[in-house]
Design goal:
36% of the residues lie in helices and 27% in strands. The protein is of the alpha+beta class. The chain folds into 3 domains: 48 residues, 2-Layer Sandwich (Uridine Diphospho-n-acetylenolpyruvylglucosamine Reductase, domain 2), CATH 3.30.43; 117 residues, 2-Layer Sandwich (Uridine Diphospho-n-acetylenolpyruvylglucosamine Reductase, domain 3); 113 residues, Enolase-like, domain 1 (2-Layer Sandwich), CATH 3.30.390.50. A 5-stranded antiparallel sheet has the order 4-5-10-6-7. Strands 11, 12, 13, 14 and 15 form a 5-stranded antiparallel sheet that branches. Helix 5 runs antiparallel to helix 8, helix 9 runs antiparallel to helix 10 and helix 10 crosses helix 11.
Length: 297
């Protein structure tokens, strides 16, 4: 079965967008292709006329400091995210998440933008970016705009982007400041299948022993990737101790909508393990923040 008719290698963002809009039939962007090509081959995605390859677009493959942000292009392979000293310095949660997606061969081709664009409620890269407070850059022929990560998702596997007129260009992450730390943890099937039963990312700001600010993302806890705002509120302005973490765990259970998945886990198991994961991830983010303070000192 033919799954596409035309394969187009884009030179720049405008070239890619024109190819999408002018294709005579259905068109899709492709970079690593680890999700899309498999879906096409196995019949989970209808055939497309044109695949637009964006792996040679400089703007989409950049990973660099831009002003007071770390920019990661959407077509940057995950192995480059993991290998980047800038990501390790400023976005520990993203570094940890990217290193857990698939295996080494998958990470050689899979891209951060592809992980996000697949719009899964427990996408590891997406959960980490949400907790890091990243902004997504969306490109169209009218220009570029930056939007909050949460606005990209319409439901499981469904993006809010216009597939014929827009593309995900990259992500802007705030640079790490003194007293800031982040971490990512997940639980996966013991057979080694690289899909998350439950994942969680934390970013926090410390002043002394007080959590002055925090962002927490958890998946899958609903139809779209989710910021746990009630759990954040339970932590914000509080000391880092067991009672506070227990209160945040209770808040997380009250707001998250864990469900049973026949191929992953029961809702009950996810609820039970969410408290464990929150304790572990908070402790690591705290240590990451303290290590940063020591380096600055």
């Amino acid at each position: 079965m033919t799954t596409w008719t035309n394969y187009y290698l884009a030179k720049d963002i405008s070239d890619a967008l024109r190819a999408l809009s002018q294709a005579p039939g259905p068109a899709r962007l492709v970079a690593g292709g680890t999700d899309l090509l498999l879906d096409l081959q196995q019949g989970r995605h209808p055939p497309v006329h044109t695949l637009v390859d964006i792996t040679h677009v400089p703007e989409l493959t950049a990973l660099e400091l831009r002003g007071d942000s770390l920019y990661v292009g959407a077509a940057v392979p995950l192995n480059q995210v993991v290998a980047s000293p800038l990501v390790r310095q400023h976005a520990q949660a993203l570094y940890e998440a990217a290193g857990l997606i698939g295996g080494p061969q998958v990470r050689n081709t899979d891209t951060l933008g592809g992980n996000v664009a697949h719009a899964l409620p427990a996408g590891d890269g997406t959960i980490a970016l949400l907790a890091m407070g990243a902004l997504a850059e969306i490109a169209s022929l009218d220009g570029c705009r930056q939007v909050p990560m949460g606005s990209l998702f319409a439901g499981p596997g469904r993006s809010t982007l216009d597939a014929r007129a827009e593309l995900l260009a990259g992500f802007y992450l705030p640079l790490r400041g003194i007293g800031q730390g982040s971490a990512f943890r997940r639980i996966m099937r013991p057979q080694g299948v690289a899909i998350a039963i439950l994942n969680l990312a934390v970013w926090l700001q410390l002043e002394g022993n007080t959590i002055t600010d925090v962002r927490l993302a958890v998946g899958p806890s609903g139809p779209v990737p989710y910021r746990a705002v009630m759990a954040e509120a339970a932590l914000r302005g509080q000391p880092m101790d067991e009672n506070v973490i227990d209160q945040a765990s209770e808040a997380l259970l009250n707001e998250a909508r864990f469900r049973t998945s026949p191929h992953r886990s029961t809702a009950e198991y996810r609820r039970e393990m969410s408290a464990v994961l929150l304790h572990e991830t908070l402790a690591e983010a705290w240590q990451n923040a303290m290590d940063g303070i020591k380096v600055e000192g």
